[in-house]
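Treating backbone geometry as a discrete language has practical consequences that deserve illustration. The sequence in question and its structure tokens are set out directly beneath this paragraph.
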Amino acid sequence: MKELQKQDTGELEILRAARTGDLDAFEKLVTRHEQRIYGLARRITGSDEDAQDVTQQTFLNAMQNLRGFRESSSFVTWLTAIAANVALKTVRKRRGLPTRSLDEATAPDAEGKIPHPEFIADWRENPERLVDRQETRRLLDSAISELPPDYRAVFLLRDVEELSVKETAKALDVTENNVKVRLLRARLMLRERLTRIFGDKNRSYAPVDHSHNDPHKTGEQS
């Protein structure tokens, strides 16, 4: 998906025409990207109906803010950012949660620790590398759908849509550090879920508590 990060010359011409109010040009942009946007919305919201609403709202927002789009960035990245925000707001509204920022909604704990997985087994691949494999796509989609919405959004933008940390942070209105933390947590959650399916349970072992080696806890100086 790397090629999607580059600005397509032909699309740039269509985009510039759409900015002048050419509705036919904007319709071409919709046709080009609606399937991808719908797919992202479906995976974040977990609902066909919500995904349809998110897709429609995404393109309405894009049309209203088209003049503010900077050609220095990729149009599809900009569109993806809009869709992710709309999808997360939809999920929070559906669950009766405040539409606050990801930083506030899932702030790291006081010490910013990454929790140990409960189940660990021999694992030869990272879950994000399974995305393009047809035989594991359904299982991975199911595992992704079980992630908390905010973690799910970060994982999808970084490891599926392949936005950079900076682009993801900007899209979700969070810090780059929080993107990294949440991506790591999402990957650990996916690893644990998928290990229960693909891992060798005979070689599983309990997580190790390294806190006794933490100089901050023992008072030792590094």
In short: The radius of gyration is 20 Å. The chain is about 60% helix and 5% strand. The first strand starts at residue 120 and ends at 122.
